[in-house]
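Render this sequence as a predicted structure.
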Amino acid sequence: MTGRYYEEFAVGETIEHAKRRTISESDNQRFCDMTMNQQPLHLDADFAAGTQFGERLVNGLYTMSLAVGISIPETTDGTIVANLSYDDVEHSNPVFHGDTIRARSTVVDKRETSDGERGVVTMRVEAFKLVDGDDVLVCEFERTVLSRKRSVDGDGSAD
């Protein structure tokens, strides 16, 4: 378990996530199949060629989900009780097959629950792709989680 307990998050802290992933055509196809999203802009090369993008786009929900997944090891791996919300989602630039995605999270808020046994942490997650040596923002959103607190004996369970 590498995630953080509530006490280990600091408001204003930015976490650069080490993992990256290059998105394949197969990744996009499987995600669309699993979610029953048959939007031709994601799946039909001929249709997409006639759009302003000129090629198929990676499903934006896959990009968002990938950013969450990339962030898990350094944030909530094994220390989360539940994801509470995803808010203010923006897809600022398109993602194409072959783009490599990286993410970073910034802690924007935290508070204890009313019973004091857990904490609520809100992070701004940003996903980027590399274009000509520069990071280009492709997706950003706020992720709010219910986090375990570290117990006196250090195992994170409630006393």
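Summary. The first helix runs from residue 25 to 35. The beta strands are 14-16, 21-22, 80-90, 100-112, 118-131, 134-148.
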